Structure formats: structure tokens, C-alpha cells
Amino acid sequence: MNNLSVNHLLGIKNLNKEDINLIFKTADNFKKIINQPIKKVPSLRDITIANLFFENSTRTKLSFEIAEKRLSADILNFSSSSSSVNKGESLIDTVNNILAMKVDMIVMRHPNPGAALFLSKNVNAKIINAGDGSHEHPTQALLDAYSIKEKLNDLRNKNVLILGDIMHSRVALSNIYCLQKLGANVKVCGPSSLVPKYLNLLNIEHIPDLELALNWCDVVNVLRIQLERQDVQYIPSLREYAMTYGVNKNILSKIKKNKIIMHPGPINRGVELSSDVADSDHSIVLDQVENGVAIRMAILYLLGRKIKK
Ligand code: CP
Fold first, then answer.
1. I need a surface site. Which of 64, 78, 197, 200 has the fewest CB within 10 A?
2. Is residue 20 within 8 Å of 28, Cβ to Cβ?
3. 23 lies in which domain range?
4. Is the pLDDT of residue 149 over 80?
5. Residue 70 DSSP SS3
């Protein structure tokens, strides 16, 4: 298969296993290119991409931007805080005005779940979801799964634990879809108050005890407590959370086998992850960031090929 089955990247739920493998194969080629002295290819010359960020971002925004530059695309960067959204302009009006400048593709992060899907139904451009509220973050899940595959060769039958604030995390849901499609076993760990009920429907087991959960897994993907999305307090305090669910040298010393440690960022050091673990040889946090560029280049390239000029 040489083409994606989808015309937009809205979520991992919409992708099939062949799509994911095609993205990985394409990313392999781009990873080689970005590690050469000349990192730029002309693949998206004459394609214009607007990066629309209605929520804060460091990694995703810069990673898309550099991926687009490496592919020779023309780029517009939009930040809602300095835009006419503050004067009451709607999302569709904003995007249609940007598209009138002959833009072909939109990369969008938005606080509302479903915002990328809504846009794909209402405007004429390829849409890439760079995170929609607590719903999906498909490029993060793809780069996470790619990074695990790079370390373990194959995802099939590997045990991956997602730890922390599952309820408010778009990374968790996208990771679950992606890892299950690739044949991994996925379980979650964290306070019951931060585990959504719908996980039963996805056949995901919740292990409340961190030591038991860590003994089960090959890989632990540690998530941040998203206080900014919590309308009520779901945990007594960050200090108590760190004592019960923080990954640190002390808890890892009780675990039989070494684990691959992942985190999508930003890390709250000393809360969900201690600095000595985040910076240890078992942590692949910066490999995730490096792979994110290759994965985003692959997606931009595969969707860009579908744009008829
Ligand atoms: N992982 C991630 O989405 O990080 P940013 O919020 O910095 O983009």
C-alpha cells in the first residue's frame, strides 16, 4: 500500500494498521535524511501549510514547523492569542480567510475535542489534528509507537503501561488505539479518579498499584497531571500523587527488569517523574522528540501527495 486510506489525520481511530506501517516506513526514510548534512528535500515545494495553535505547545508546534521546512513547504504560523479570534471571529471564518491565501493544509491544535473533525467537514483543505482537547493527539501516538518499535523491534505482544492522568489525556487515548492496532498489550495505572469508565469498552485493564503495574510492563509511558483541564480536584495534592504514582529510582529499584521510560512532555520533574529517571539511560524522552520530526514529515508528505494542483 502506497497511500493512506484517509484524506486527513484526525485521529488514530480512523487509521488502519497498514496506514500506520506506511507512516513508519516513510518516517524511516525521512529519519535517514534528517541525520544527513543536507536535511532538506523538495517533496512539498509549492505546498503551503498553516499551523494553527489555539493552545500552548512547544514540541508539537516546533516539530511540525521544522518537518515542513525540511520538506520545503511554505509555512504560515498562527497563534490565537495574537489573532482576530480575540475580536470574536469564528473558527470557520478564521480558517476560510487563511485558505483564501492559497493554503493547502492546516495543522491545528485546539482545546475542543472534535475541532479537527469539524474543520475537515467545513473547509476545503487537508487537516492534521495536532491535539484536540482531551480527545486525540495522533502524531504523538505515532511517534511514541515508532520509538518503542525502534527499541524493541516489534510491538506485538509487548506490554505497554500508560501511567497517570488518563482521563484528561489525548495522548492516552491515541496511544491506546495505536498500540492495540499494532498488537501490543496495553494497561493503565494511576488513581481511579483519573481513569475514565470507557476504558472497559476498549478492553483496557486498570492496575491501581504502581509496583505491580511496573512489574508487568516492558515500557512505561508516564503522563503529566493536567491540572489545567481539571474542573474539580481529582487528587488530594501533587505531593501525595508523587509519593504514590511518581516514577523514581526508589520504586524502580524494587522492579525486577529494566523498563523503557517514556514521556510525551512537558515533564513536571519531581511529580510524575524524578529527574534522575527522566535523564537516565532507560529514558527515551529525547528520542521521542527526534522521531517526532520524522513521523510528522511522513504524514505531511503522505497527505501532501493527495493534494491535486
Ligand atoms: N507532547 C506535546 O504535545 O507537547 P507540547 O504540548 O509541547 O506540544
1. 197
2. no
3. 12-136+289-308
4. yes
5. helix
Of the candidate ranges 14-18, 85-89, 158-162, 259-263, the one whose mean pLDDT is the lowest: 85-89
Q: Has residue 7 been placed in a domain?
A: no
CA distance 121 to 160: 34
- In terms of domains, do 144 and 236 share one? yes
b/e per residue 252-280 (b: at least 16 CB within 10 A): beebeeebbbbbbbebbeebbbbeebbee
Considering only CA atoms, which residue is closest to atom 1 of ligand 1? 264
Ligand 1 first shell, C-beta below 6 A:
57-61, 131, 137, 140, 264-266
User: What pTM did the predictor assign?
Assistant: 0.96
Residue 123 sits in a domain of what CATH number?
Answer: 3.40.50.1370
In this model, does residue 228 exceed pLDDT 80?
A: no
Pocket test for ligand 1, best of 58, 64, 66 (most atoms within 8 A of CB): 58
Q: How many domains does the chain have?
A: 2
**Is there a domain that residue 4 lies in?**
no
CA triplet 140, 175, 187: central angle to 5 degrees? 145
25-31-37-41 Cα dihedral, nearest 10 degrees: 50
Q: Which residues pair with 185 in a beta bridge?
A: 159
Q: Are residues 158 and 270 in the same domain?
A: yes
Tell me how far the alpha carbon of residue 256 lies from the centroid of ligand 1, in angstroms.
31
**Whether the predicted pLDDT of 197 surpasses 80:** yes
Please indicate, yes or no, if residue 233 is contained in any of the structural domains: yes
Name the residue at shortest CA distance from atom 3 of ligand 1: 60
In-domain check, residue 183: yes
